[in-house]
């Protein structure tokens, strides 16, 4: 079994990683952690953001590896997290997606769309959602 984790480094993502860890242990699964970022390589502030993302991904992967769970990390650069998550789940043969539901205003959902909604409606496998309070 393979679990794909949608990860963006926000404060609630520790809970998402814990949930994915529980599922991986229960199902003898491997894990892929996917982070999607909108970075411009020539922008100096984005280079430091890239370093932070790399450190976050290494820390997240270590959580699984310390438990003996095979884990890979992927950083995709682009504007559409939902589409990258769907692509990774289809091409990588994910059996489950673990993703967080972050609070957003109604206007924000209307203007920017909902990654969560796209993943739920289009995923080729079950989606396990952690909702922040």
Named CATH topology: Rossmann fold
Average pLDDT across residues? 86
Helix content: 40-55%
Poorly predicted spans: none
CATH architecture: 3-Layer(aba) Sandwich
Features:
5 strands, alpha/beta, Rossmann fold, 133 residues, 5 helices
What does this structure look like?
By secondary structure, the protein is of the alpha/beta class. It has a single domain (2-131), classed as Rossmann fold (3-Layer(aba) Sandwich), CATH 3.40.50.620. Helices cover 47% and strands 23% of the residues. The protein is built from five helices and five strands. A five-stranded parallel β-sheet has the order 3-2-1-4-5, sandwiched between helices. The relative contact order is 0.22. The mean pLDDT is 86.
Strand and helix layout:
Layout lengths: L1 E5 L6 H15 L2 E8 L6 H22 L5 E7 L3 H11 L4 E6 L4 H7 L2 H8 L4 E5 L2
Helix pairs in contact: 3-5
Would you summarize the structure shown here?
The chain is α/β, with parallel strands linked by helices and 133 residues long. It has helices at residues 13-27, 44-65, 81-91, 106-112, 115-122; strands at residues 2-6, 30-37, 71-77, 96-101, 127-131.
């Amino acid at each position: 079994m393979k679990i794909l984790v949608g990860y963006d480094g926000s404060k609630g993502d520790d809970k998402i990683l814990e949930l994915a860890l529980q599922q991986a242990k229960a199902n003898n699964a491997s894990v892929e952690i996917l982070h999607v970022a909108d970075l411009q390589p020539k922008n100096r502030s984005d280079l430091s953001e890239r370093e932070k993302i790399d450190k976050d991904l290494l820390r997240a992967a270590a959580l699984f590896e310390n438990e003996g769970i095979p884990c890979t990390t992927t950083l995709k650069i682009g504007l559409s997290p939902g589409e990258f998550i769907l692509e990774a789940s289809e091409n990588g043969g994910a059996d489950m997606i673990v993703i967080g539901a972050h609070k957003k205003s109604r206007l924000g959902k209307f203007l920017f769309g909902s990654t969560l909604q796209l993943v739920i409606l289009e995923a080729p496998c079950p989606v396990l959602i952690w909702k922040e309070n």
